Each structure stands twice: as C-alpha cells, then as structure tokens.
Amino acid sequence: MYVIECLKNSDEPIFSLEITPPKKGKSIKGIFNTIDMLKEFHLNFINVTYHQQRVVFEEKNGVIKKIPKRKNVGTVGICSAILHKYGIETVSHIICGGFSKYDTEDALIDLNFLGIQNLLVIRGDPRQGEKGFNPEKDGHKYAFQLVKQINDMNHGKYLEDLENVNPTNFCIGVAGYPEKHFEAANMEQDLLNLKNKVDQGADYIITQMFFDVNKYKEFVKKARAVGITVPIIPGIKPFTRKRHLTILPTDFHISLPNDLVKGILKAKTKEAIREAGIEYTISICKELIEFGVPGIHFYSLGRGTDVRDVVKEIF
Ligand code: FAD
Fold first, then answer.
1. For an engineered disulfide with 238, which of 61, 103, 279, 281 has Cβ 3.0 to 4.6 Å away?
2. Best mutation site among 53, 104, 118, 142 for ligand 1, i.e. most ligand atoms within 8 A of its Cβ?
3. Per-residue pLDDT reduced to its tens digit, 161-196
4. H or E element: which one contains 48?
5. pLDDT tens digits along 290-313
6. Yes or no: is domain 3-314 CATH 3.30.300.20?
7. What is the sign of the dihedral through the CA atoms of 191, 197, 201 and 203?
8. Cα of 122 to ligand 1 centre, how many Å?
9. Domain ranges of the chain
10. What is the pLDDT of residues 40-70, one digit of tens each?
11. C-alpha 166 – ligand 1 centre gap (Å)
C-alpha cells in the first residue's frame, strides 16, 4: 500500500520505522531481529536509508586513482527482502548525491519492476570528507529536482522520448526540518523550499528528529500558512545515552530542551539515563498524538529495543 493511502485510510496515528543498511560484509539478521521485535505493534511501513559511496584516492605505480567505496549494503535489496519476508511496505530512500539523472532513471525503473513504489526523496548528506554537497555531473543539486524527475515518470515522461511508455506510480515523501535545515538562510526560506518539493509532486513530509514538541507544532503552523497541505509525520529518535547530548545537536543540527538535558544530567548511571530518556521520549510521543499527528516515524539507528520500549507505551 502507498504511504499516502495508509495515512488517508487510518483513523489512528500510524507507526513507521527507519533503518540503516548494515555495513558491507554484515548479515541482514540484525534488521530481521529488529522487525521481529516490533511487528506486533502493527508496523505500517519501514524506511531504508541510502548512503552515498565514499571516494578514496589510492596510488599504484605512481598513478593516483579515484576509487568509489560503498560502506553499506544496498538499500534496494533490503527493501525487497523485508517486503517479501514480512509483507510490510518498505520505503526506499533515494538521493541526489552520486547519481546523474540518467542513473536515477535506471534505478527508478528497477525499483518499479521490483514493486517498491514508496520513496523518500532527499538530496543526501555531503560525501564523507567533503565540506558541502557536490552533485554529480548531470545530477540534481536539490531534492525538488529529483522529486520533479520522479513525478515526470509518474506522468509517463522519461528522459528520452519513448513511445507507448507505462507511467510509474511512485508515492513520494520528502524531508522537512522543524528547526530549519542547517544550510537555509532562515526558516521562511526553508519552508518555501519545502513547499516547492510539495508543488513538484511530494505526497507527504517526514521531519528531522526533534525533542521539543512546540518546535514541531510551530513548524506545522508555519507550513500550513505558506500553503503546504500534505501530511507532516514527526520523526522521533528515542533518547537513551549521555553522549546523545552532544552527538545529536552536532550531527543533526537540532537543539535539546532544558528539561530533557537536566533530567539526563541528573541521572547517575547508564540505566538511569536510559530510563529518563525513554520516559521523556514516551511523553513527547503522547503529546504529539494528543496534538493529532498523522503518525510517528521512529529513527532506530540500529537500536530496535529503544524503539520497542517507547512504542509499547504508545501503540
Ligand atoms: P533539499 O530539500 O534539497 O534542501 C537542502 C538545502 O537546500 C536546504 O537548506 C534548502 O532550504 C535549500 N534549498 C532547496 N531548494 C533550494 C533552491 N532552489 N535554492 C537554494 N536553496 C535551496 N541523508 C542521506 O544521505 N541518506 C538518507 O537516507 C537520508 N534520509 C533522511 C531522512 C529524513 C526523514 C531526513 C529529515 C533526512 C535524511 N537525510 C538522509 C539527510 C538529508 O540528506 C540532509 O538533511 C540533506 O542535507 C538535505 O536533504 P533534503 O532532501 O532536505 O535537501
């Protein structure tokens, strides 16, 4: 089922999960264990992230060669494995980085043939070791351009003129940032850029993680004010470790509210920190549900037990 249909057909907030492909050489068992742990809570869909290849330079016989190195197992294979083993809908992340628009078209044709028709369309993080985001030659610089390419294919418009083509039927999600994307000049401009992604064909939005529900509420209010009408699903990461106090603001450009920080600093053991973090996460999920969110999307970041301990109190 398409995510957008799932959102429309459900009277209750839906539950979804984001997983990251394991490192190359690792097994898919960890992912299956996570799903086994969570499927009883009626998991509506599972997103699988996509990460751009690293590039390393190696010298051989005096010649320097640029070698692409993939760190993680392929997203599409994982989506397909989950779909076939569990029958749970998967959402493949597709990014601009590392793809020309011709590579993108080929990847989309493969996804369509495999029956993976839910996509989360994002620009992608800058390549490891590079400061800013650099698109490929003939690639997209912004997510809205990739959304447009996919929407064109949904209308039977491929990159070359083809006769009697079958239009694709992808359901398109995009990313939104309740605390502003870190590169955007200000919130107002970021929201206009978000609206552009919706105008180009996005069906719904999933947010970056946040820990202050008021930031989400304000974001939804402002998004509606600029004419964004699609569902906005909050993204939540269970807070469980002391190092999250520094890692989350650094890596995700978000802030942590004082009551959470104080509660974590007050807890003296690892167990007490985890308990305080999980309790806080449960409380914000309850507040979001009371607010009337269409669903909650959990960032598992490889820790299914953290998600389970929150979800069992919510769904
Ligand atoms: P865009 O929408 O392209 O926006 C990027 C920046 O450009 C923003 O500041 C925006 O305001 C600005 N902008 C947009 N249009 C214009 C314009 N016309 N002119 C000037 N500026 C413009 N990363 C991965 O590598 N893999 C993943 O699987 C992944 N999954 C994610 C899932 C979610 C739910 C979220 C929230 C993020 C995810 N990311 C992932 C991270 C994401 O790739 C980064 O946050 C990235 O920096 C921005 O992606 P975007 O799609 O929001 O970009």
1. 281
2. 142
3. 988 999 999 999 999 999 999 999 999 999 999 999
4. strand 43-48
5. 999 999 999 998 899 999 999 999
6. no
7. negative
8. 5
9. 3-314
10. 999 999 999 999 887 778 888 888 887 777 7
11. 29
